[in-house]
Amino acid sequence: MKKALFTVLLVMPVAFSNCDTNESPNSTDNKEGITHTDWEKNVRKDLSKDSVETTESLQLSCNRYDFGIVSKRKVKNIQFNIEMKNVGTKPIAIQKVDASCGCLSASFNKKPIPPAQTAQLAVNVDTRNLKGQFSKVLFINSTAEEGIKLVRIVGKITD
């Protein structure tokens, strides 16, 4: 298992599409955290397009989030949602979501996602113990054919 995880971690940087944003989201100075809602509205348009259908396939709004420079004095938590769409023909259940660091957490509805429907994965990055550049990964384990989906979260924390 460790060898397989190590192999996955080596190929992760190559597997990500380019969904970077060089700008921080609109609400960067709120004390509750950063939200990515405006950015998600634009991505939602892409999710509505038809894609190649398989028996069970999960499509993510993006698999790489770049929050740029974040001041930890102003922002204690970076909060955003990842939209997950079932583009297959059978319901897909999210079984668990693992994080590469204790500063990263995610919550989701345990109900299976019906075909052609979406669900939200709420993500929180606790910036209090981060310093400098960071790169964290979420591992989304589901009943979809592709198994585990990876989401990379990057940025730079300043004092």
Which key features would you list for this structure?
Immunoglobulin-like; 159 residues; disordered N terminus; 8 strands; 2 helices; 4-stranded mixed β-sheet; 4-stranded antiparallel β-sheet; alpha+beta
How would you sum up this structure, described in words?
With 159 residues, the chain is α+β, with helices and mostly antiparallel strands. It has a single domain (2-158), classed as Sandwich (Immunoglobulin-like), CATH 2.60.40.10. Helix content is 16%, strand content 40%. It contains two helices and eight strands. The protein has helices at residues 2-15, 37-47; strands at residues 58-60, 64-71, 77-86, 94-99, 104-108, 118-126, 132-142, 148-158. The chain has a four-stranded antiparallel beta sheet with strand order 1-3-6-5, covered by helices on one side. A four-stranded mixed beta sheet has the order 2-8-7-4, with no helix packed on it. β7 and β8 (148-158) form a beta hairpin. The radius of gyration is 16 Å and the shape is elongated. The N and C termini lie far apart (38 Å).
Quick gist of this model?
The chain contains two helices and eight strands.
Q: Please state the average pLDDT score.
A: 76
- The helix/strand order is HHEEEEEEEE
Largest sheet: 4 strands, antiparallel
How many domains? The number is 1
Percent of residues in β-strands = 35-45%
CATH topology: Immunoglobulin-like
Detail the topology: elements first, then pairings.
Layout: H1 2-15, H2 37-47, E1 58-60, E2 64-71, E3 77-86, E4 94-99, E5 104-108, E6 118-126, E7 132-142, E8 148-158
Parallel strand pairs: 2-8
Antiparallel strand pairs: 1-3, 3-6, 4-7, 5-6, 7-8
